[in-house]
Amino acid sequence: MHSFFSSDNKNQRRKLNKENIVRLVFPSLSTGLGKVPIGEAVPVACNVIKEFLSKHKFNEHNNDDIGSVELILYDPDPNVLKAYETQLSQDIKETRLRLVNELFTDKMSFISGLESRKILEAIGPVLASEIKKAYSKPGIIIYVVSPNVSSTQSNPVIISESKKLLSDAYRSMFDAFLCIIRGEKYTPKGQEEKSKTESKEKPKSAFDVLMQGSRDSSSSTSKSSFGKKANKGFHWQNALLGYLENPEKYPDNEVYFYDNEFVIIWDKFPKAKKHFLVMPRRRINFIDELTSDDLQLIQTMKEKGEWVIERIKQEDPKLRFRMGFHTVPSMKQLHMHVISQDFISPTLKNKKHWNSFTTEFFKDPDEISKTLQENGKIHFDKDFYEELLKAPMKCHLCKKKMNTVPELREHLLKHWNNE
DNA sequence: GTTCTAGAAC
DNA sequence: GTTCTAGAAC
User: Fold this and answer.
1) Angle (deg, nearest 10), helices A351-358 and A405-416
2) Pairing relation of β-strands A321-326 and A362-363?
3) Is A353 a catalytic residue?
4) Can you give the C-alpha Rg of chain A in angstroms?
């Protein structure tokens, strides 16, 4: 659960009282990728919702210090909502529960495919601004993001078990909600036991391990390289190298493809809905190391890029792509970006990000090949190209000048929605 | 490369 | 007062 008011201190929370409406916005759990049949999941959800509402009748007529509460259940699937409507209409008329279909769907579309942590980081500011528009008196709104289930991860559903899990999930969500609005600390049930019995270390993503500096290509046998001292030898510039050596060790959502010669990864901080890096496995730190002998390499990278684009377009034909190289890359190992042209992404955060994909800073593979053919080498003037990154931002589609990143974001969304 | 935050811009 | 950027730190 993520409260985007989470930075509020307790005093501010105390100010919360009857005149405020506290809204919990939450998804229908498990009816999407969770694949629990609607007919099974919806009654379970409704029972817990009704249980919660009847237990906590804090509205304008009572003395609870919490204020009025409204539950807002959202789901993009109209069939799911219909099922809730039907289920709930059999009982009381409950004005404190609202069913919402297109809840900020457009604005939230950028989160698809992001890992949960990134969603949490990104969603708060967007949501806050949307809610300001949607409600004149927004009060406090706590928004629950649905678990980021990968379709490849879903296992067969055992109905009897999933029902129990589901009601537990809703209950703990409501418990956490109450704790947050009361300014109390929320401790998930059974957490203490767990930490005693299973002191198992949380699995880290390969990237995180890398970023912590465990990697040292010359002494991979040394276990002590996990110590603090080894961090000295690690730099973020090397973050891509691990993928080259052991692409098989990474999950599907990090490494998209590999063979003996190439590795294609999902960019860890995508600057658009779809953003990949195509890398040769042969060690080439930077583009200026290329010679005319590498024309075939560039050609093959381009073909790999086209192959990825083809596949992704089958999933979403609306996407357009470009591929290319940064003239002054930050990270070691030659990598070609394959990036969709929506540029809708919470990790596109600043002018430098924008200009690095939409100015001459970004070079087509064909242009690289051409230069290699003509000159036998590649050289990009660092000062010149870095200066391009500081230029005023312009929309890549309509050339309109963009003054701030939020303005750019909004503008890009309009293009995406064909407005 | 990202994160963090001071202070500029509004 | 709040939003946003830019530069230092990592």
Assistant:
1) 50
2) antiparallel
3) no
4) 25
Its pTM stands at 0.59
A364 φ, ψ to 5°?
-55, 150
pLDDT tens-digit series, residues A342-388: 999 999 999 999 999 999 999 999 999 999 999 999 999 999 999 99
Task: Report the nucleotide nearest the CA of residue A403, measured to C1'.
Answer: C4
Give the start-to-end residue ranges of the domains of chain A. 10-194, 235-416
Residue-by-residue DSSP string for A293-314: GGHHHHHHHHHHHHHHHHHHHH
pLDDT along chain A (419 residues), means of 10: 36 43 79 79 85 68 58 79 80 72 62 59 63 64 63 56 80 79 65 36 36 33 32 80 96 97 98 98 98 98 98 97 98 98 97 98 98 97 96 98 97 94
Percent helix, strand and coil across chain A, each to the nearest 5: 45, 15, 45
Residues lying close to strand C (Cβ under 7 A), chosen from 225-244 of chain A, are 236
Q: Which of A2, A235, A275, A335 is catalytic?
A: A335
Evaluate whether the domain defined by A235-416 bears CATH number 3.30.428.10: yes
